[in-house]
Amino acid sequence: MTSERVKGYLEKADKFPHRREGENVLLDFIPKTTRRVLDLGTGDGRLVKILKTKIPNAKYVAIDFSPPMLRTLKRRFGCDDSVRIIRHNLDSSLPELDILMQ
């Protein structure tokens, strides 16, 4: 994904119909006692950020392959020990679970 494409996506992401409703359903669905969250194709980490408001003590793994999105993730969560950022293309099998959840 090119930087221009990422920029275009991020500029219009908040305008997607029913996006907030879907995010609210996710917040209602995930228990507050959740200890680990795996976000595949995390993009800019929007869902991780939202989930951290409900379950701040969980450990998060954010997986994406796009260099511009990974840069955004690192700016957002680079100093947050509860979020592990992994560069991975989902066209390939996932890394071993123990690597993901360290």
Description:
- By secondary structure, this protein is of the alpha/beta class.
- It has one domain (3-100): 3-Layer(aba) Sandwich (Rossmann fold).
- The protein is 44% helix and 16% strand.
- The protein has helices spanning 3-12, 19-29, 46-54, 67-77, 97-100; strands spanning 36-40, 59-64, 83-87.
- Strands 1-2-3 form a 3-stranded parallel beta sheet, with helices on one face.
- Strand 1 (36-40), helix 3 and strand 2 (59-64) form a beta-alpha-beta unit.
- The longest helix has 11 residues, at 19-29.
Radius of gyration: 14 Å
Overall geometry comes to globular
Beta strand count: 3
Query: How far is the first residue's CA from the last residue's CA?
Result: 28 Å
Q: Order of strands side by side in the largest beta sheet?
A: 1-2-3
Taking pLDDT < 50 over at least 5 consecutive residues as the criterion, the unreliable ranges are none
Helix content: 40-55%
- The mean pLDDT is 85
| Most strands sheet | 3 strands, parallel
Question: Number of folding domains?
Answer: 1
User: How many DSSP helices?
Assistant: 5
CATH class: Alpha Beta
The secondary-structure class comes to alpha/beta
Kindly estimate the percentage of residues that lie in beta strands according to DSSP. 15-25%
Order of helices and strands: HHEHEHEH
- Assign the CATH superfamily: Vaccinia Virus protein VP39
